[in-house]
Amino acid sequence: IFGCARIPGDKSISHRYAMLAALAEGSSFITNYAPGADCHATLSCLRDLGVIIKTSDTEALKNNGTTIRIEGRGSQGLTPPSNILNVGNSGTTIRLLTGILATQSFESALTGDESLTSRPMERVITPLTQMGAHITAHNGRAPLTVTGRPLHAIDYIPDIPSAQVKSAILFAGLQAKGTTTIRERAITRDHSELALEAFEAFIERSNNMSAHNVTNLQGIENTDTTYRVAITGDQRLVAQSLNVPGDLSSAGFLAAAAAALPGSELELIDVGLNPTRTALINVLRRMGVSIEISEQKVLLGERRGNMVIRHNELHPITIKPGEVPALIDELPLLAALATHGGGLNVTGAEELRKKESDRITSLVTGLRNLGANITEQRDGFCVQGDKKISGGQAQSFGDHRIAMALAIAGLGANGSSLILDSDAVEVSYPNFFDDLEAIVE
Ligand code: S3P
């Protein structure tokens, strides 16, 4: 692997900027908006809610990310959709939008694809109902019906660490009566907090963020709630011009390719380096990968910079339960990397079974079909990186991160690998295979 790549815009940040721009007063501009189907679904739901959104070119949006203009409607200005809102495959869209719709003065319904409608929604329904929202579901799953009404503040400790849950509550809290507080045992990605501040909302959060992050990233399990964020309702958001950094979770797949193959050197330009997302970098370094970071800057609260990744001999590592929340989207790529050498043991990651697919079973089945030595546990998996894999035929299970992980594993195989349903990459990184091909020497 050799060369330089620019990664498409961050998916998590793009969703949040688009939703808050829709609630703001005035026109917002977002450049480098994430190109995948998930962030596209957010725009399409917002359009169904009466928001005018102009993209510089629809094809460009799908393929490269581009500039979009969103005409904000103000915090109570969304209009009733004429149809059921379809979020496709996007868990972030449905969970965050439910928080927003719970405060609007109309009824709406949300659904998604087969994977989405099998994922748990109780985690957002419970706190929003405590705030006074009326939401119906089917056995705790979508389709959801949300009847908006005035909400009141709550003080809430989620059972599972989830940025989507925290964000749904914060977005509802923006319009609720009183001050809504969320306390987390391990801090999850804080893009919603930073985005709210970028749109000039006032929030209060624990001091000494860096200490919390370090604690979290080193995987020390906290029994106490270490992080607190509070938002007072009835706030107005002000339209902004925003630029989305490259998505570190997408960058991770190309970084893993460079980390895996001897002689590789890859530069990734302008990648998001928010400390609640960079646990991946620490773990790659623990595996022996050389990573240099340069040109760091902070824009609208989000840290970003360039990364150079060089191959080194890979060491076996263990990921402990306390580290999992900060690495949840990166475990597939780490498993793929471990098939090249070293090895990886992951426990405490049961939450992986509730993602776009059951990622423990998908990874174990897929990597095993490519010849990897991998075993499945209830809450994790163990990869032995002791032999070169054979290659073969494997399913993505319609899951974007599994498709990309299988491709990274396949780069180290003796024979060729065929990945079925590989177009699942459309969800987050439509140009993944082209970008990978461009850096393979
Ligand atoms: C996300 C949060 C995480 C992550 C998902 C994106 C977000 O999910 O896995 O890909 O944008 O808030 P959870 O909140 O369920 O952990």
Verbal overview:
It contains 14 helices and 22 strands. The longest helix has 13 residues, at 11-23. It is globular. The protein starts with a strand and ends with a helix. It has 441 residues and is α/β, with parallel strands linked by helices. It has helices at 11-23, 37-48, 58-63, 91-101, 122-130, 163-173, 191-198, 209-217, 248-260, 279-286, 331-338, 359-369, 400-410, 432-439; strands at 2-6, 27-31, 52-55, 68-71, 85-86, 107-111, 134-138, 141-147, 155-156, 179-184, 203-205, 227-232, 241-243, 265-272, 290-299, 302-310, 317-319, 343-346, 373-377, 380-384, 392-395, 417-420. Strands 1-14-16-15 form a four-stranded mixed sheet. Strands 3-4-2-13 form a four-stranded mixed sheet, with helices on one face. The site of shikimate-3-phosphate has 9 residues, from helix 6.
Summarize the structure.
With 441 residues, this protein is α/β, with parallel strands linked by helices. 31% of the residues lie in helices and 25% in strands. Helix 2 (37-48) runs parallel beside helix 4 and helix 12 (359-369) packs parallel to helix 13 (400-410).
